[in-house]
Amino acid sequence: MGKNRPKIDIVIPAYNEEKILKRNMETLAGYLEEHMPGQCSIIIVDNASRDNTGRIASELSSLFGNITCTARKSRGRGGAIREAWSKSTADVMCYMDADLSTGLDILGEAVDSLSGGGYDLAVASRLKEGARVKRSVFRSFISRRYNSILRFIFRNRQFSDAQCGFKAANRKAVEQVVPQVRDNKWFFDTELLVLSEIGGLRIRDIPADWNERVDTRVNILSTIFEDIYNIIRLRLSLLARSARK
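Below the sequence we write its predicted structure tokens.
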């Protein structure tokens, strides 16, 4: 049975995470050793940090056999995920935010969905019935409005929360869809899911246990404008693609 267990790479994009990285990666490594021994590798991607994130990631890689680290010269969560997933040889590729806001028990359910459940992607949702979420009213409102706009424009039905910080994909999904995704920042998640559903892939939407960490480095207003631009760009791109058929 052990020989049939899928190999899993978990990518952790990390930008200026010196305060939490060591503690959280020790927590994640311990969880994996207990619940999924020998299956998982953690890949920390230092996303052009300006603090000691890179040094801490390097120290962690020397302490833990299942942790490796790499560094990028340019920022962008999407770019970090793209780069790591594209180089991965694993059967299942995940990413989690370094703050571990998403409960770790979702890992097993996601992997089971991809390795034997007939799904190509598995995503955490803070908006699906059954989710247990601790979050500010303002951020919950913004998230619900954003995802409502997506459903109105793209008619997606398989996912309810495009931006939650956990996603997993099998090799088929990564090879088919990731090269089509143009955004390298926060919209990467949305574009990945929209293109996956349009491409006929199956997505498992999993209610999340989620505990908000307020990230003051994220400029909400700027991110909103970027998202609006990218939604329009993606919609026009899909219309052009449809017209060429």
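The mean pLDDT is 94.
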